[in-house]
Write a structure and sequence with these properties.
This is C-type lectin domain-containing protein. The protein has 123 residues and is of the alpha+beta class. It has 2 helices and 7 strands. The strands form 2 sheets. The chain has a 4-stranded antiparallel β-sheet with strand order 1-7-5-6, with no helix packed on it.
Length: 123
C-alpha cells in the first residue's frame, strides 16, 4: 500500500473554503471545509463549487482526505508547478509526501498533483 503523491497534468475533484461552519455537503478538518466531488470537472468548474482544489499541510490532513475519498484512490488536489511548487489557494507549500522518483521533471508536462491511495504511480 503506497499512499504517496504522484503527478499528472490536469485538475478535477476537490474544493475547500474557510468558514467557521461548513456548508451542507462539506466536511470540516481543522479550520477548513472540504468536499469530495466525484464528477470529473475542469479546474475552473471545480473552483466554481465555492472553493479551491485542496491543499495539504500535514500527514493528519492527508489521512483525512484519504477517508473522504474512500473508493476513489486517485484524486486531484491543488498543487501546481509554475516553476516552483505552490498551492492554488495561495497557502504555503509546507508539506510534501512525494512518491519515490517524484516529481519527475525530466519527463516534462507534470505540473499538477494527484493523491494516490491505490498504490500505483501515474505519470
Amino acid at each position: 500500500f503506497d499512499d504517496n503523491w504522484s503527478l499528472s497534468c490536469c485538475f478535477t475533484y476537490f474544493g475547500l473554503t474557510g468558514p467557521s461552519r461548513c456548508k451542507r455537503g462539506w466536511q470540516k478538518f481543522g479550520s477548513r471545509c472540504f468536499r469530495f466531488e466525484e464528477t470529473l470537472r475542469s479546474w475552473t468548474e471545480a473552483e466554481s463549487l465555492g472553493g479551491h482544489l485542496a491543499s495539504v499541510h500535514s500527514w493528519k490532513e492527508s489521512r483525512f482526505l484519504e477517508t473522504l475519498t474512500v473508493g476513489s484512490p486517485l484524486t486531484w488536489i491543488g498543487g501546481n508547478d509554475g516553476g516552483r511548487w505552490s498551492w492554488t489557494d495561495g497557502s504555503g507549500f509546507n508539506y510534501q509526501q512525494w512518491a519515490e522518483g517524484m516529481p519527475n521533471t525530466s519527463i516534462g508536462g507534470e505540473s499538477c498533483i494527484q493523491m494516490n491511495f491505490g498504490g500505483t504511480v501515474i505519470h
